[in-house]
Write a structure and sequence with these properties.
This protein is 43% helix and 26% strand. The chain has 145 residues and is α+β, with helices and mostly antiparallel strands. The strands form two sheets. Strands 1-2-3-4 form a four-stranded antiparallel beta sheet. A three-stranded antiparallel beta sheet has the order 5-6-7.
């Protein structure tokens, strides 16, 4: 089962706002200051690369239930979490930086890792259904989960 990430409107607005700001700043700087042509090309390339990265995060974030592990991808970032390593699953609205693009999240804690590096937040579009399927595959959950 594969689920795209839910995306909050404010997150989407921030991403597109940053992209517009980068392009506007590039245009203003190149017209206000006389740059050499190679500097303009480098600047435009940097703006395009940053914009492509932000769009990759926005549209390339998904979660997939595979045979032995949960596969999470957010742009270039990948996390594989074995079902036997998951000790806690629950709903969260914690805004810690993670592979989630929405404030309505699923918190996943892993055995043998601390809170910082052993907790991941995901935000599938339909988190109730996704959490139900994920719980079915996790046989090592703590009783409080």
């Amino acid at each position: 089962m594969r689920a795209k990430s839910a995306v909050d409107r404010r997150f989407r607005a921030v991403v597109f706002g940053v992209i517009v700001f980068l392009f506007a700043a590039a245009v203003l700087f190149t017209t206000a200051i006389s740059f050499a042509p190679y500097q303009i090309v480098i600047g435009c390339g940097a703006v395009l690369a940053a914009s492509a990265f932000l769009l990759w995060l926005l549209y390339g974030t998904f979660y997939e239930l595979r045979d032995d592990y949960l596969y999470c991808r957010s742009g270039p970032f990948v996390e594989k979490i074995g079902y036997d390593q998951i000790k806690y699953l629950g709903y969260s609205e914690n805004m810690l930086s993670s592979m989630a693009l929405s404030s309505k999240r699923i918190e996943i804690r892993q055995y043998g890792k601390g809170f910082v590096n052993g907790t991941i937040m995901i935000s599938p579009e339909n988190r109730e259904i996704f959490l139900g399927y994920l719980r079915q595959r996790c046989h090592c959950l703590d009783k409080a989960s």
